[in-house]
Design brief:
The chain is of the alpha+beta class and 123 residues long. The protein has helices at residues 2-14, 106-118, and strands at residues 19-30, 33-42, 47-55, 58-67, 73-78, 91-93, 98-100. It is flat, with a radius of gyration of 14 Å. The mean pLDDT is 93.
Length: 123
């Protein structure tokens, strides 16, 4: 059920110490279809803007746009069909290139951000 996924996101993000503020919108169209979108501000000033449109087990559309505290792109995952990569349409934008990527979920992306925050700083 879609609501269960969204509830999990809300619960887990509420317990994460790296999130300073968040605004999450959830809309359920059917028991197995809906979307979650919003914005998260992290304790280092970086920002994640996101959208997941889900039907059943599929993410029909998603984007996770992560910027540093200066508003500069760190990475962006999405499945817009505008880049020819081996994982088409799924891909990852970095400041210098677009690379193949498997489909992502919000909690995975937040985990990646947390690992980056605990390691080296980005440009």
């Amino acid at each position: 059920m879609i609501y269960d996924y969204f509830k999990k996101v809300e619960t887990e993000t509420s317990e994460m110490g790296i999130i300073a503020e968040k605004a999450i919108e959830f809309r359920e169209f059917d028991i197995d279809e809906g979307f979650i979108k919003g914005k998260m501000l992290f304790i280092d000033g970086s920002v994640l803007e996101f959208l997941e449109y889900i039907k059943g087990d599929s993410r029909l559309k998603y984007r996770f746009h992560y910027m540093n505290d200066q508003g500069i792109l760190v990475f962006r995952y999405d499945n817009a069909p505008h880049h020819e990569v081996s994982t088409f349409p799924d891909h990852k934008h970095t400041p210098n290139e677009v690379v193949a990527s498997s489909p992502k979920k919000l909690l995975f992306v937040i985990d990646e951000i947390e690992k980056m925050m605990s390691g080296a700083r980005w440009v």
